[in-house]
Amino acid sequence: MTEHNSFRSAVVDEIIMTPIEDTDSAFALISAIAKNAGVITINKKRINLVMSVDTYAVAMYLVDTLKSIYPTEFEISCDEIKSGPKRGERAFSVAVQTGFTQQVLLDAGLISEEFGGFELDVPEKFRKEYSLAVTYLKGLFLASGGIYVPSTGDEEKKDGYHFEFRLEDEETALSVNGLLASLGVSAKINERGNMWLVYVKDKEEIVKILSLLGLGECVMALRRIIDERETANALNRAVICETANLDKTYVAASKHLLAIGIIEDSVGLETLPPALQETARIRMEFQQASYEEMAEILGVSKSCLNHRLRKLVEMAEEIQNA
Questions:
Q1: What is the second-level CATH architecture of the domain 21-119?
Q2: Using alpha carbons only, what angle is made at residue 173 by residues 197 and 55, rounded to the nearest 5 degrees?
Q3: From CA 233, how far away is CA 153, in angstroms rounded?
Q4: 215: buried, middle or exposed (CB in 10 Å: 19+, 13-18, 0-12)?
Q5: How far is CA 246 from each of CA 16, 114, 151, 253, 291, rounded to the nearest angstrom?
Protein backbone atom coordinates (compact mmCIF):
# COMPACT_ATOMS: atom_id res chain seq x y z
CA MET A 1 0.00 0.00 0.00
CA THR A 2 3.00 2.32 0.32
CA GLU A 3 4.20 2.01 -3.26
CA HIS A 4 2.95 4.44 -5.92
CA ASN A 5 1.02 2.03 -8.14
CA SER A 6 -0.49 0.00 -5.32
CA PHE A 7 -1.86 3.15 -3.66
CA ARG A 8 -3.58 4.26 -6.86
CA SER A 9 -4.98 0.75 -7.20
CA ALA A 10 -6.32 0.98 -3.65
CA VAL A 11 -8.10 4.25 -4.46
CA VAL A 12 -9.59 2.75 -7.63
CA ASP A 13 -10.68 -0.39 -5.77
CA GLU A 14 -12.44 1.60 -3.06
CA ILE A 15 -14.22 3.75 -5.65
CA ILE A 16 -15.57 0.78 -7.61
CA MET A 17 -16.62 -1.02 -4.42
CA THR A 18 -19.17 1.77 -3.85
CA PRO A 19 -22.40 1.15 -5.79
CA ILE A 20 -23.98 3.95 -7.80
CA GLU A 21 -27.06 5.07 -5.86
CA ASP A 22 -29.29 6.65 -8.54
CA THR A 23 -29.60 7.50 -12.22
CA ASP A 24 -28.25 11.06 -11.91
CA SER A 25 -25.15 9.74 -10.15
CA ALA A 26 -24.71 7.19 -12.93
CA PHE A 27 -24.90 10.00 -15.49
CA ALA A 28 -22.24 11.96 -13.55
CA LEU A 29 -19.83 8.99 -13.48
CA ILE A 30 -20.37 8.19 -17.16
CA SER A 31 -19.94 11.87 -18.11
CA ALA A 32 -16.50 12.12 -16.49
CA ILE A 33 -15.26 8.87 -18.03
CA ALA A 34 -16.71 9.56 -21.48
CA LYS A 35 -15.28 13.11 -21.61
CA ASN A 36 -11.80 12.18 -20.40
CA ALA A 37 -11.31 8.59 -21.60
CA GLY A 38 -13.69 8.38 -24.54
CA VAL A 39 -13.38 8.55 -28.31
CA ILE A 40 -16.24 9.23 -30.73
CA THR A 41 -16.15 7.97 -34.31
CA ILE A 42 -18.65 9.11 -36.93
CA ASN A 43 -18.98 7.12 -40.15
CA LYS A 44 -21.96 8.27 -42.21
CA LYS A 45 -24.90 7.55 -39.91
CA ARG A 46 -22.96 5.32 -37.54
CA ILE A 47 -21.86 7.04 -34.35
CA ASN A 48 -19.86 5.11 -31.78
CA LEU A 49 -18.53 5.99 -28.33
CA VAL A 50 -15.65 3.94 -26.95
CA MET A 51 -14.33 4.52 -23.41
CA SER A 52 -10.93 3.11 -22.42
CA VAL A 53 -9.86 2.42 -18.82
CA ASP A 54 -6.89 0.81 -17.09
CA THR A 55 -8.32 -2.43 -15.73
CA TYR A 56 -10.98 -5.01 -16.44
CA ALA A 57 -12.54 -4.36 -13.02
CA VAL A 58 -13.07 -0.68 -13.86
CA ALA A 59 -14.45 -1.65 -17.28
CA MET A 60 -16.95 -3.99 -15.61
CA TYR A 61 -17.93 -1.24 -13.13
CA LEU A 62 -18.58 1.08 -16.07
CA VAL A 63 -20.59 -1.61 -17.90
CA ASP A 64 -22.69 -2.31 -14.79
CA THR A 65 -23.37 1.43 -14.48
CA LEU A 66 -24.38 1.70 -18.14
CA LYS A 67 -26.59 -1.39 -17.99
CA SER A 68 -28.44 0.04 -14.98
CA ILE A 69 -29.79 2.70 -17.36
CA TYR A 70 -29.68 1.47 -20.95
CA PRO A 71 -31.38 -1.80 -22.03
CA THR A 72 -28.58 -3.18 -24.18
CA GLU A 73 -25.30 -5.08 -24.01
CA PHE A 74 -21.88 -3.44 -23.89
CA GLU A 75 -18.75 -5.04 -25.29
CA ILE A 76 -15.41 -5.01 -23.47
CA SER A 77 -12.20 -5.44 -25.48
CA CYS A 78 -8.54 -5.45 -24.47
CA ASP A 79 -5.89 -3.74 -26.60
CA GLU A 80 -2.25 -2.72 -26.26
CA ILE A 81 -1.63 1.04 -26.22
CA LYS A 82 0.49 1.91 -29.27
CA SER A 83 1.71 5.42 -28.39
CA GLY A 84 2.01 7.99 -25.63
CA PRO A 85 3.25 7.69 -22.04
CA LYS A 86 1.37 4.41 -21.53
CA ARG A 87 2.71 2.75 -24.65
CA GLY A 88 2.90 -1.03 -24.25
CA GLU A 89 0.35 -1.12 -21.44
CA ARG A 90 -3.08 -2.72 -21.78
CA ALA A 91 -6.31 -0.75 -22.05
CA PHE A 92 -9.81 -2.13 -21.61
CA SER A 93 -12.37 -0.50 -23.89
CA VAL A 94 -16.13 -0.34 -23.40
CA ALA A 95 -18.07 0.26 -26.64
CA VAL A 96 -21.52 1.87 -26.72
CA GLN A 97 -23.71 0.67 -29.56
CA THR A 98 -24.59 3.15 -32.31
CA GLY A 99 -28.25 3.24 -31.32
CA PHE A 100 -27.43 4.41 -27.78
CA THR A 101 -24.37 6.65 -28.28
CA GLN A 102 -26.26 9.89 -28.83
CA GLN A 103 -28.54 9.28 -25.84
CA VAL A 104 -25.54 8.52 -23.61
CA LEU A 105 -23.87 11.77 -24.68
CA LEU A 106 -27.06 13.74 -24.06
CA ASP A 107 -27.64 12.17 -20.63
CA ALA A 108 -23.98 12.78 -19.73
CA GLY A 109 -24.34 16.48 -20.54
CA LEU A 110 -21.64 16.33 -23.21
CA ILE A 111 -23.88 17.54 -26.04
CA SER A 112 -27.01 19.67 -25.95
CA GLU A 113 -28.54 18.63 -29.26
CA GLU A 114 -27.63 16.62 -32.36
CA PHE A 115 -23.85 17.05 -32.18
CA GLY A 116 -24.05 20.83 -32.23
CA GLY A 117 -20.84 21.00 -30.22
CA PHE A 118 -19.23 19.20 -27.30
CA GLU A 119 -19.18 20.45 -23.72
CA LEU A 120 -15.65 21.07 -22.41
CA ASP A 121 -16.63 22.30 -18.96
CA VAL A 122 -17.87 20.03 -16.20
CA PRO A 123 -21.61 19.97 -17.02
CA GLU A 124 -23.53 22.41 -14.85
CA LYS A 125 -26.01 19.80 -13.64
CA PHE A 126 -23.12 17.91 -12.02
CA ARG A 127 -21.52 21.02 -10.54
CA LYS A 128 -24.49 22.41 -8.67
CA GLU A 129 -25.27 19.35 -6.51
CA TYR A 130 -22.72 18.14 -3.98
CA SER A 131 -23.25 14.39 -4.32
CA LEU A 132 -23.15 14.54 -8.13
CA ALA A 133 -19.99 16.65 -8.06
CA VAL A 134 -18.32 14.03 -5.85
CA THR A 135 -19.45 11.19 -8.14
CA TYR A 136 -18.16 13.12 -11.16
CA LEU A 137 -14.74 13.40 -9.50
CA LYS A 138 -14.75 9.66 -8.81
CA GLY A 139 -15.38 9.00 -12.51
CA LEU A 140 -12.68 11.51 -13.41
CA PHE A 141 -10.19 9.66 -11.23
CA LEU A 142 -11.06 6.34 -12.87
CA ALA A 143 -10.54 7.96 -16.28
CA SER A 144 -7.48 10.14 -15.76
CA GLY A 145 -6.48 10.31 -12.11
CA GLY A 146 -3.21 9.55 -10.42
CA ILE A 147 -1.94 9.54 -6.84
CA TYR A 148 1.64 9.04 -5.71
CA VAL A 149 2.86 8.64 -2.15
CA PRO A 150 6.41 8.08 -0.89
CA SER A 151 7.62 4.76 0.38
CA THR A 152 7.87 4.71 4.16
CA GLY A 153 11.34 3.20 3.89
CA ASP A 154 12.89 6.00 1.82
CA GLU A 155 13.84 9.54 2.65
CA GLU A 156 10.96 11.78 1.63
CA LYS A 157 11.49 13.77 -1.55
CA LYS A 158 10.14 17.25 -2.09
CA ASP A 159 7.48 15.92 -4.46
CA GLY A 160 6.79 12.76 -2.49
CA TYR A 161 3.04 13.34 -2.33
CA HIS A 162 1.13 14.05 -5.53
CA PHE A 163 -2.51 13.84 -6.69
CA GLU A 164 -3.48 14.72 -10.24
CA PHE A 165 -6.03 14.67 -13.03
CA ARG A 166 -4.51 14.48 -16.55
CA LEU A 167 -6.75 16.37 -18.98
CA GLU A 168 -6.58 17.06 -22.69
CA ASP A 169 -7.37 20.79 -22.86
CA GLU A 170 -7.01 23.94 -20.79
CA GLU A 171 -10.72 24.71 -20.66
CA THR A 172 -11.50 21.36 -19.09
CA ALA A 173 -8.62 21.80 -16.64
CA LEU A 174 -9.92 25.21 -15.57
CA SER A 175 -13.42 23.81 -15.10
CA VAL A 176 -12.19 20.85 -13.02
CA ASN A 177 -10.03 23.18 -10.94
CA GLY A 178 -13.06 25.38 -10.33
CA LEU A 179 -15.11 22.38 -9.25
CA LEU A 180 -12.43 21.36 -6.73
CA ALA A 181 -12.24 24.93 -5.42
CA SER A 182 -16.02 24.98 -4.89
CA LEU A 183 -15.58 21.87 -2.72
CA GLY A 184 -12.82 23.46 -0.66
CA VAL A 185 -9.79 21.86 -2.36
CA SER A 186 -6.90 24.08 -3.42
CA ALA A 187 -5.33 22.70 -6.62
CA LYS A 188 -2.97 24.04 -9.27
CA ILE A 189 -2.86 23.77 -13.07
CA ASN A 190 0.18 23.07 -15.23
CA GLU A 191 0.72 22.20 -18.88
CA ARG A 192 2.92 19.18 -19.49
CA GLY A 193 3.54 18.10 -23.06
CA ASN A 194 0.16 17.88 -24.74
CA MET A 195 -1.69 17.41 -21.46
CA TRP A 196 -3.00 19.72 -18.75
CA LEU A 197 -2.54 18.69 -15.13
CA VAL A 198 -4.82 19.70 -12.28
CA TYR A 199 -2.76 18.66 -9.29
CA VAL A 200 -2.21 18.84 -5.54
CA LYS A 201 1.12 18.27 -3.80
CA ASP A 202 0.22 19.19 -0.23
CA LYS A 203 -0.37 15.98 1.70
CA GLU A 204 -3.11 17.48 3.87
CA GLU A 205 -4.98 18.63 0.76
CA ILE A 206 -4.67 15.11 -0.65
CA VAL A 207 -6.13 13.72 2.58
CA LYS A 208 -8.96 16.24 2.14
CA ILE A 209 -9.65 15.03 -1.41
CA LEU A 210 -9.77 11.39 -0.35
CA SER A 211 -12.11 12.32 2.53
CA LEU A 212 -14.28 14.30 0.12
CA LEU A 213 -14.59 11.23 -2.10
CA GLY A 214 -15.64 9.16 0.91
CA LEU A 215 -12.61 6.86 0.70
CA GLY A 216 -12.17 6.13 4.39
CA GLU A 217 -9.79 3.19 4.00
CA CYS A 218 -7.45 5.20 1.77
CA VAL A 219 -7.58 8.14 4.16
CA MET A 220 -6.45 5.85 6.97
CA ALA A 221 -3.71 4.35 4.81
CA LEU A 222 -2.36 7.74 3.75
CA ARG A 223 -2.52 9.07 7.31
CA ARG A 224 -0.54 6.05 8.43
CA ILE A 225 2.12 6.67 5.76
CA ILE A 226 2.36 10.35 6.71
CA ASP A 227 2.62 9.62 10.42
CA GLU A 228 5.11 6.78 9.99
CA ARG A 229 7.40 8.91 7.86
CA GLU A 230 7.29 11.90 10.17
CA THR A 231 8.07 9.80 13.24
CA ALA A 232 10.09 7.01 11.63
CA ASN A 233 13.01 7.20 14.08
CA ALA A 234 10.81 7.25 17.19
CA LEU A 235 8.14 4.66 16.45
CA ASN A 236 7.54 1.74 18.79
CA ARG A 237 4.66 -0.68 19.22
CA ALA A 238 2.72 1.56 21.60
CA VAL A 239 3.04 4.56 19.27
CA ILE A 240 1.87 2.51 16.29
CA CYS A 241 -1.26 1.48 18.18
CA GLU A 242 -1.91 5.09 19.14
CA THR A 243 -1.42 6.17 15.53
CA ALA A 244 -4.00 3.63 14.39
CA ASN A 245 -6.47 5.03 16.91
CA LEU A 246 -5.78 8.56 15.67
CA ASP A 247 -6.37 7.38 12.11
CA LYS A 248 -9.81 6.08 13.07
CA THR A 249 -10.58 9.30 14.93
CA TYR A 250 -9.55 11.36 11.89
CA VAL A 251 -11.70 9.34 9.48
CA ALA A 252 -14.71 9.57 11.81
CA ALA A 253 -14.19 13.31 12.30
CA SER A 254 -13.90 13.84 8.52
CA LYS A 255 -17.21 12.05 7.98
CA HIS A 256 -18.91 14.10 10.70
CA LEU A 257 -17.50 17.41 9.42
CA LEU A 258 -18.58 16.66 5.86
CA ALA A 259 -22.10 15.86 7.11
CA ILE A 260 -22.26 19.04 9.22
CA GLY A 261 -21.06 21.08 6.23
CA ILE A 262 -23.82 19.63 4.02
CA ILE A 263 -26.48 20.44 6.64
CA GLU A 264 -25.12 23.95 7.20
CA ASP A 265 -25.01 24.73 3.47
CA SER A 266 -28.49 23.38 2.74
CA VAL A 267 -30.85 23.99 5.66
CA GLY A 268 -28.62 25.67 8.25
CA LEU A 269 -27.51 24.35 11.63
CA GLU A 270 -30.03 26.58 13.36
CA THR A 271 -32.81 24.30 12.11
CA LEU A 272 -31.44 21.39 14.15
CA PRO A 273 -32.75 20.43 17.60
CA PRO A 274 -30.67 22.06 20.37
CA ALA A 275 -28.84 18.84 21.27
CA LEU A 276 -27.73 18.28 17.68
CA GLN A 277 -26.78 21.96 17.27
CA GLU A 278 -24.53 21.72 20.33
CA THR A 279 -22.99 18.46 19.12
CA ALA A 280 -22.31 19.92 15.65
CA ARG A 281 -20.71 23.02 17.20
CA ILE A 282 -18.43 20.97 19.46
CA ARG A 283 -17.44 18.65 16.59
CA MET A 284 -16.43 21.68 14.47
CA GLU A 285 -14.59 23.33 17.35
CA PHE A 286 -12.70 20.21 18.48
CA GLN A 287 -12.03 18.46 15.15
CA GLN A 288 -9.32 16.13 16.48
CA ALA A 289 -11.15 15.18 19.68
CA SER A 290 -11.85 11.51 20.36
CA TYR A 291 -15.31 10.20 21.26
CA GLU A 292 -14.30 10.09 24.92
CA GLU A 293 -13.10 13.71 24.85
CA MET A 294 -16.21 14.96 23.07
CA ALA A 295 -18.53 13.07 25.40
CA GLU A 296 -16.76 14.64 28.39
CA ILE A 297 -17.05 18.14 26.90
CA LEU A 298 -20.77 17.66 26.23
CA GLY A 299 -21.42 15.90 29.52
CA VAL A 300 -23.09 12.90 27.90
CA SER A 301 -22.34 9.21 27.53
CA LYS A 302 -20.42 7.82 24.54
CA SER A 303 -23.57 6.00 23.49
CA CYS A 304 -25.56 9.25 23.48
CA LEU A 305 -22.82 11.04 21.56
CA ASN A 306 -22.61 8.26 19.00
CA HIS A 307 -26.39 8.44 18.50
CA ARG A 308 -26.23 12.21 17.89
CA LEU A 309 -23.34 12.00 15.43
CA ARG A 310 -25.01 9.14 13.57
CA LYS A 311 -28.17 11.24 13.33
CA LEU A 312 -26.19 14.14 11.78
CA VAL A 313 -24.70 11.80 9.16
CA GLU A 314 -28.13 10.34 8.39
CA MET A 315 -29.62 13.81 7.96
CA ALA A 316 -26.84 14.78 5.55
CA GLU A 317 -27.42 11.61 3.52
CA GLU A 318 -31.14 12.38 3.35
CA ILE A 319 -30.38 15.89 2.10
CA GLN A 320 -28.04 14.52 -0.59
CA ASN A 321 -30.58 11.94 -1.74
CA ALA A 322 -33.53 14.34 -1.72
A1: Roll (3.10)
A2: 60
A3: 11
A4: buried
A5: 26, 53, 21, 10, 11
CB 157: neighbour CB atoms within 10 A?
A: 8
In whole angstroms, give the CA distance from residue 47 to residue 301: 62
Q: What percent of the chain has pLDDT over 70?
A: 84
All residues at 6 or more sequence positions from 264 whose CB lies less than 8 Å from its CB, including other chains:
280
Cβ atoms within 10 A of the Cβ of 178, count?
15
Sorted by where each begins, the domain ranges of the chain are 21-119, 236-321
Write the pLDDT tens digit of every residue in 94-139. Answer: 999 888 988 999 999 988 765 556 778 899 999 989 999 999 999 9
Task: Compute the C-alpha angle 260/265/268, nearest 5°.
Answer: 75
List all residues 6 or more positions away from 131 whose beta carbon is below 8 Å from its beta carbon. Answer: 21, 25, 320, 321
> Pairing between strand 188-192 and 162-167?
unpaired
